[in-house]
Amino acid sequence: MSMRIRTSALTALAVAAVAAGMVLTAPAGAAPKAAVPKFLSASQLPPHPTSSWTAGPVTEGFPEELGFCVSTEGVLDYDYRHRTFRTDLDTGAVQLTVVTGTAAQAKALAKHYDDLIRTCADRIEKASPDIEAEGRDYGSLPVEEGAHVRGLHTETSIGASDIALLSVGRDGRTVTVLQWGQMGGFKGAPVTAFKKTTTTAVNKLY
Predict the structure, then answer these.
(1) Which has the closest alpha carbon to 183: 165, 155, 163?
(2) Which residues pair with 85 in a beta bridge?
(3) Cα–Cα distances in Å, from 6 out to 2, 98, 125, 155, 175?
(4) Per-residue confidence (pLDDT) for residue 187, from 0 to 100
């Protein structure tokens, strides 16, 4: 079974299991317009040993690829944009940018997303007893207003194993979320390269 199929299944079960998160409030009125944040290029993803990365177009809206850990549940309808990346093999990635109204809202949103990622393994196991999930904390990065990196491994009762690296970073009133994933476990995860990619992504926003 491909990672894409398994990820879709995880997306459905985890979104259904997400408990009501913190509701972020904002003053009435539309958020002021700002410069559009920039996205990673394919060459800035963690290098794949046998295949190059291909970047999709920058697209409006929230990416379903993030749905198994991060969602719009309890979050205002901000300006969401995303870009997906893929290799010729079973490895993929996605970057989300969210422009909020104020730096305070962005700080709260970044914490909210990081909390969702931190608790994702427990929520997956609670929603589906035949999936074992483990999360790991890879620490913070000193870039702009900060970023945090975490890992998530899932294994089904039939032996399907997937590893994901996720990060949340902030620059002013803009938040970016990154996810890299492939089949396998923590041992094969390019943590150091992903941290470099996260730093680049946050620095590149503006």
Answers:
(1) 163
(2) 55, 93
(3) 6, 26, 15, 10, 27
(4) 94
* Residue 13 main-chain phi, psi, to 5 deg: -75, -35
Residues 172/145, Cβ–Cβ less than 8 Å: yes
Closest CA to 1 of 162, 163, 149, 135: 162
Tokens of 184: 């396998």
pLDDT digits (tens, 9 = 90+) for 79-112: 999 999 999 988 999 999 999 999 999 999 999 9
Tens digit of each residue's pLDDT (9 = 90 or more) over 114-140 = 999 999 999 999 999 999 999 999 999
Distance of alpha carbon 136 from the chain centroid: 14
Helix segments in 18-132, DSSP class H: 103-118, 120-127
Contacts 24+ apart (CB under 8 A), 4-11: 4/90, 4/92, 6/154, 6/156, 6/160, 6/162, 7/65, 7/68, 7/162, 7/181, 10/68, 10/124, 10/131, 10/154, 11/64, 11/65, 11/67, 11/68
Do the beta carbons of residue 93 and residue 178 sit within 8 Å? Answer: yes
The whole-model pTM stands at 0.83
- pLDDT-derived band at 27 (thresholds 50, 70, 90) equals very low
